Amino acid sequence: MIQTDPANADIARFLKRLQWGLVAFAVGYVIWLLGPILTPFVLALLLGWLGDPLVDRLERRGRSRAVAVTLVFLLMTLLLALVLIILVPMIERQIVTLIDSLPQYRDWLLGTALPWIEQRTGYEVMSWLDTERLIELIRGHWQQAGGVAATVLAYASRSGFAILALVINLVLVPILAFYFMRDWDLLVERVAALIPRDHIDTATRLARETSESLGGFLRGQFLVMLGQGAIYAVGMSIVGLRLGLLIGMVAGLISFIPYLGATVGILLALIAAIVQAQGFDWQLLILIGVVFTIGQLVESYVLTPRLVGDRIGLHPVAVIFAVLAGGQLFGFLGMLLALPVAAVVNVLLRFAHERYTHSRLYAGDKPDIEIAGAATSQRPVIIVTDSKDPDGER
């Protein structure tokens, strides 16, 4: 019988793990290089993944894959068109209101906010906004100003290509999403065929857990964002804030980062209320605080527990770190990939913790000695269990 040297076995396992680490690094590097062109593909992949369960449900009811994909795609298109028809005119009116209010914001900044800051801090902020000082500053740094001007002109010359790229991406996303939904099961089968057969069961289990947790989280979080944005927008419009709809929508859209949506929303709403009332209208400010308090309570005790729950299992701090780290490393593409990658990492960490608690490293090699009946009048019985067996059986 051939015996394997434990040292050689450990080296082989280390080399195998090193190979997988190098593969992961290479994939990350390629994603970083192709980041600018991968955004529409990632968006379409997410849409295809989110729509696949509904397509499968229609297939189980007797419809063909092509018909099911067409129906789901048309449903998504109609929902998007309905949202645009309703929201675009409202957003346009809010933007016009904001533009008309810009002189009031300028007067408030120069006449109230900056003098208050100077009085509290002692810094002469207003002197930096003096016209003559700005002219002298430009004269003293004309080379840097020329460089900035050149940069602006270069950006303006490239703006046509940027708009063209944006239009191409907008056209590509629905086309790619349709093909991803149609061929989703085939893509899953091909990826599964590449996994080593010794690990197929574990990989299938981890993929299923990741898909269930992340899919439920994204669908639920999307509904939470819509609900929270609607509460803020309708509430602030009712209390009389002219820019309430726009601020509420912004707060709802960024509420996927815990506490950031409410914080940014209430700061913008307070500034808008002060400028609108030309001072501190305490009744309006209190009503805005009531709206955000109600929104937070509904989100914390109704929307999130019912729609999201603990599907992804990530702490809010981990969510914030994942989004910021993804944006820092890969830009907007990284922010799109942040939560999916965080969900995968979370599932892998749970699996690693499970393996660790059942390993010899955690349990040790010494047998555990338990004295049964020591606390009673019965005769003590010594039970020896092997720590390598988590169930305590020999």
Can you describe what's shown?
The two termini are 26 Å apart. Strands 1-2 form a two-stranded antiparallel sheet. Helix 7 packs across helix 12. Strand 1 (368-372) and strand 2 form a beta hairpin. Mean pLDDT is 75; it is low at 368-377 and 381-394. The chain is built from 13 helices and two strands, in the order αααααααααααααββ. The protein has 394 residues and is mainly α. It is globular and about 80 Å long.
Give a quick precis of the structure:
The chain has helices at residues 6-33, 35-60, 65-121, 131-140, 142-182, 184-193, 200-238, 244-253, 260-277, 282-308, 316-330, 332-357, 360-363; strands spanning 368-372, 381-385. The protein is an all-alpha fold and 394 residues long. A two-stranded antiparallel ribbon has the order 1-2.
